[in-house]
Amino acid sequence: METFGFLIHPMDMDDIAKKYKIAKKISPKVIASVIKRRRPFVMSEITGIRSITGKEAIGWFIAVPLLPNQFFDLEESYVVEKIAKACEVGRKEGAKIVGLGAFTAIPGDGGREVAKLTKVPVTTGNTYTIATAIEGIKEAARKMGIDLASSTLAIVGATGSIGSACADVLADQVNELILIGRDTTRLSGLEEGLSKRTKRTTISTSLSAIRTADLIITVTGAVDSVIKPGDIKPGAVVCDVARPRDVSELVIRYRDDVLVIDGGIVQVPGPVDFHLDFGLPKRMALACMAETIMLALEGRYENYTIGKDISIGKVNEMMGFAKKHGFKLAGLRSFEKKLTDAYINKVRENALFSGVTR
Q1: Tens digit of pLDDT for each residue in 89-100?
Q2: Which of the 8 DSSP states describes residue 245?
Q3: What is the CATH number assigned to the segment(s) 128-265+331-353?
Q4: CA separation (Å) from 125 to 105, 109, 275, 290, 308?
Q5: Domain residue ranges of the chain, discontinuous segments joined by +
Q6: Using one digit for the tens of pLDDT, what is the confidence trace for 205-235?
Q7: pTM of the predicted model, to two decimals?
Q8: Helices (H) and strands (E) in the chain, counts
Q9: How would you write 265-285 as a 3-class SS string?
Q10: 314-331, pLDDT tens digit by residue?
């Protein structure tokens, strides 16, 4: 039996209140102060994972008691040490590899510092996240009648490990590439590296640059949503890979002429039971979690995806693992709801009505 662990953390005060009902009656500031002192702990056991090859795995969700903003506001050394302690909790439970989920994958140079402090191998899961984001946006583009070769693709959070790898994979498949981030120097370096493979590349530190894009992949580390209803042109497809989400729920509410899809939602093989409600339907997992499971099924107990640089070779390897073990993109989904062809066709019609011609 193969084994793994996966780190999770509360996304907001409501998540904390699910475990500690008294939290509803206490000041959020006090709650934040209390939970940062708590030790990591096992949240639930994950059972029923069965590859189509017949191999099986069990795992554990390990809770890191920190809120999203605390991963940035607290001393990085303190945060990294707490994440490493959570990995050790998983190791002592029996995990032979641990996945760093959500904000636990960001501090300490994308897992490198954590890897130095724990005896168990770690992975951020970003490699398979990239693979599923690319697969998802290509499928959504096809259904929306967007020709990939003549399209403009914007990547928000382009200098991060996921954003830069998506840019690398898709650079020579689109007509124009818009790279958006906060650091002009890093954006320029990324642009220079891709310039020989793209027809046209531009960089920007402003989100307004996405308004000309047909396709948008967004994967920032922002605590709150950054993309609003007025930021997207009619007929565009937005693949939101970030958790917490980069795309405001207001986009879904007020823009019936754009298609927003969730990035990295995967169907896990076998009668899986996570024994925890983390917002996805049964047997569904985030791609970062799926990567951890696949590495366990492969017996690849090694530091796999850490740091900022992710090779196309690894992306292809992970796609091979997915096919081998029966992991599949869970169709096109938006805010955890499956998108039907009828819904997508309606969005496309609304975009045409808005004056967009394809």
Answers
A1: 999 999 999 999
A2: -
A3: 3.40.50.720
A4: 9, 14, 21, 8, 12
A5: 2-125+266-329, 128-265+331-353
A6: 999 999 999 999 999 988 889 999 999 999 9
A7: 0.88
A8: 13, 16
A9: EEECCCCCECCCCCCCCCCEE
A10: 999 999 999 999 999 988
